[in-house]
Design goal:
This protein is of the alpha/beta class. It contains eleven helices and 13 strands. Helix 1 packs across helix 3 and helix 4 crosses helix 11.
Length: 382
């Protein structure tokens, strides 16, 4: 490489060495440099950038640590790998991981998120590809390795992990991050990883649902959840309890019940026991996807124990099929994230993370659709 090919990298009073390292990445991309090609010398970089020798050394050290440059004794620096975030065609590449339980023809939930992502990607000149992660990935090292190899081969600039299930994916996500990929997810956190998590605002959610219950004359609200310690459910319950107090509603601890989703018959019997012990609960918010099937079973087989004025709101959390309830509850009320907007914000948030720029996600307000399952509490309507 000749000196005439080296452009100025900035003013002498310019950015910190980390920013200068990012400028060098841009330089590699704009010049279309290849793996194995010799990098400008330290003397050339100091002269052309105006930065101090210390700043240049530190910037090159960062690129070495990230695996982008290789120092060869007595020869200088050489391109070891191309920097994430920069492609020859000038387009960033994002990979979306879709869970195994989302059907190919499912448009109403995950499909809308994807539509929002595609629109945002077109607006930002970004390429998006999709991969499905297999069932049991949290328990099978073989399946984890299979998915990791796909990601390693694609080497995207960023990964959107849709509908993560929690702590079981931590090790795999750390490996993805080690490739230089930024990661964002939806709904719940992945262990203790410090990655952006996008979901609808808890207090907007609580206000919408509880105002509907209050308008219908309901005074006690019950919750069907999965795991009270789970990040998603914990945040929801806290917001619901705070908002319930403002609305003059009660959500007693005895009216919050957890479901595992693994033993349908036992879970259905749990619903029967719930209504026997909580006959005064007439507002029911089903936060756990699979519990709606247990509720439906009880409504069909034991309608006499279900409160006549029961109002049901189902929290749409993922791309699984939603059953219809039996009459007279057949019009299920649903509350879901603003899916199209969520998809857009996933792309915007991920791009900001790749560029290491601050980005504040706007408040994501859920959509509440009231059906005939939102029944008025007899004799209690305010």
């Amino acid at each position: 490489m000749q000196n005439k090919d080296i452009q100025d990298f900035g003013e002498a009073s310019g950015p910190h060495y980390r920013d200068f390292a990012n400028e060098l990445k841009t330089y590699v991309a704009e010049r279309g440099m290849e793996v194995g090609q010799r990098f400008p010398t330290i003397r050339q970089l100091v002269k052309r950038s105006g930065h101090s020798l210390s700043t240049v050394h530190k910037a090159l050290g960062i690129l070495e640590d990230e695996g982008l440059l290789e120092a060869r004794h007595g020869s200088g620096y050489y391109i070891k790998s191309l920097p994430a975030g920069f492609r020859k065609n000038g387009r960033r590449e994002l990979l979306v991981l879709i869970p195994y339980f989302v059907k190919n023809d499912e448009y109403w939930f995950t499909g809308k998120i994807i539509e929002g992502m595609l629109f945002a990607a077109q607006d930002r000149n970004v390429t998006i590809s999709f991969e499905r992660y297999p069932e049991g990935i949290g328990r099978s090292k073989e399946k984890q390795e299979e998915l990791y190899k796909i990601i390693e081969e694609k080497k995207p600039d960023g990964v959107v992990w849709l509908h993560a299930r929690g702590n079981r994916d931590v090790a795999l996500v750390r490996r993805i991050q080690a490739l230089g990929c930024k990661v964002v997810t939806t709904i719940r956190r992945i262990g203790d990883l410090d990655i952006p998590v996008l979901r609808d605002d808890e207090y907007a959610f609580s206000s919408q649902v509880l105002s509907a219950f209050k308008f219908g004359g309901h005074r006690k609200v019950g919750l069907f959840i999965h795991d009270e310690k789970d990040d998603y459910y914990k945040a929801r319950i806290e917001a619901l309890r705070e908002t319930a107090e403002m609305f003059g509603l009660a959500i007693p601890s005895s009216a919050i019940v957890s479901f595992s989703g693994s033993e349908p018959e036992l879970e259905t019997e749990k619903v029967r026991a719930y209504f026997r012990e909580n006959s005064d609960v007439t507002g029911l918010l089903v936060l756990y996807t699979y519990a709606i099937h247990n509720l439906k079973e009880v409504m069909e087989t034991s309608p006499e124990i279900v409160p006549d004025a029961l109002a049901v709101v189902f929290n749409v959390l993922s791309g699984v099929e939603i059953p219809s309830l039996p009459a007279p509850w057949d019009g299920l009320s649903k509350v879901s994230p603003p899916l199209y907007k969520l998809g857009q914000e996933l792309v915007f948030t991920l791009l900001a993370a790749i560029d290491e720029k601050p980005y504040s996600v706007p408040r994501l307000v859920p959509n509440l659709e009231l059906g005939s399952s939102m029944r008025a509490a007899a004799g209690q309507k305010s």
